[in-house]
Amino acid sequence: MTHKLLMIFFCISSYVVSQNKTTYTYAIKGSDTLKLDVYSPKEIKANDSLPVLLWMHGGGFAGGTRDHPQEQKLVEYVTTKGYIGISISYRLLLKNSKTGSGCDCPKAFKLEIFKQAAIDYLDATKFIIDNKSMLQINPEKIIAGGSSAGAESILNAVYMKAYFVDDLKRFKDVKYAGVISLAGALVNAEYISKSNALPTVLFHGTDDPLVPFASAPHHYCSAEKPGYLLLDGSETIVKKFDDLGTPYYFNKVIGGKHELCAIPFDQLDTIMQFFEKTVFNSEIIQTKKIITKN
Known about the structure:
alpha/beta, AB_hydrolase_fold, hydrolase
């Protein structure tokens, strides 16, 4: 197994005993039946309308599953904090690809993958909003979250909807209250503005070889390669938030690589407290946690 494949596997690995869940189909696209798993607090009441974590797994647009134990553990955890936890599937357009998402994957195809993954995420969001009463979700309090490829997808869906979506009217009711990005990047941070900037949690390693930490080519491809595509990573996004006065929690690991895509279970309480203060109480908090990897 190559070094890159090992890092992708790391982002979809971990085990925990699963609990009850309800599964829905949110879209059928060609041969792909796209589903989402909804986890609710055991003590939910009939009239409750709860905040949501809507999660998108990683796996290089080639692997991973919505019901992998790591994803299950996360969405189960948020139910203990009074949230609905939802984990989605999406089209894995690089599954069985010979190039993967690396430097031999043409730029135009990478952009199309980003576009379709973002649209899948928006479609999942639209589904839960359209069914808000049945699912008992508060459409004003949806936290968009993802890891690695999932983080790239949700960042593009949240901040670059105007770039990737042809029919914006379809998603006129779709909006988010906050963001969690684990080793993610987006195509152009200039699309982040005062009107769309949200409280955002970012985890990233400065030496991530796949998803750029700041502004650099995806997979650090050289300019003559077909897969040369500039992306803006967490450092660039945070600089934008500094300029806009947007709340953020930035976990920066000096020397860290793509392992920062792993769900930080030891910091979830801190992350939930950040959203409690910034989303629910409208506080402006900008936290940079800088760690040097041993």
